Amino acid sequence: MTKENKLMIILRGIIMENPVLILVLGTCPTLATTTSVISAFSMGIAATIVLICSNVVISALRKIIPDSVRIPCYIVIIAAFVTAVQMLLQAFLPDIYKMLGVYLALIVVNCIILGRAEMYANKNTVLDSALDGVGMGLGFLLALIIMATLREVIGNATFAGIEIPFLADYKIPVLTQAPGGFLVYGIVIAVMNKLTEKKGGVKRKSFSCEGCPSSATCNKSTCSNTSNKEVEENA
Predict the structure, then answer these.
(1) What is the pTM of this model?
(2) 159 beta partners
(3) ∠ Cα 13 196 113 (to 5°)
(4) Which of 50, 144, 155, 201 is least crowded, fewest Cβ atoms below 10 Å from its Cβ?
């Protein structure tokens, strides 16, 4: 691979395949931890560390792990790194540990991390998997910070816990609550879609028999014709 291609692996996770704003993954921690910039940043960093480390280990062991037990193996590997991060935060940053609460432990089942293990680390080299972890982690972190900034500044008139006096009389407290989280999330996704649309849009996969569990037994020509017909009708 060229240097440009290596760079594209990182940029893909930040922009073209942003896990939160494009793929709409990891919604639970996104909504739960973006009430403040500090908690959002902490969650983003913790998830990025786990993502990079698990990608590297899973890629290194991809030829050893049997196909039949690969998902349980991935979960054990991810859980080991999450536990290490938990113990480090509890020892050195107890306030952050308490702030993240149960959502720190739930990184184990974060679909971004498990999804990258299955879709990328399981099929690529250690270096590429590490770069993919960096890109996806930074994309996750960036999305969390954008949402947290909007929710905390407009909803609480503070930034990272620091008061913004001239906004105190104009804050909208509902943005720091669950309904406000969904509202901000929807707005940010809409803006992201508009921006990527102007730049040519995100390439969407066409319908085909590839990946269908019944592709070996069904009439592929009929399946293909039906899929094409459905696409035309939906269009």
Answers:
(1) 0.81
(2) 162
(3) 20
(4) 201
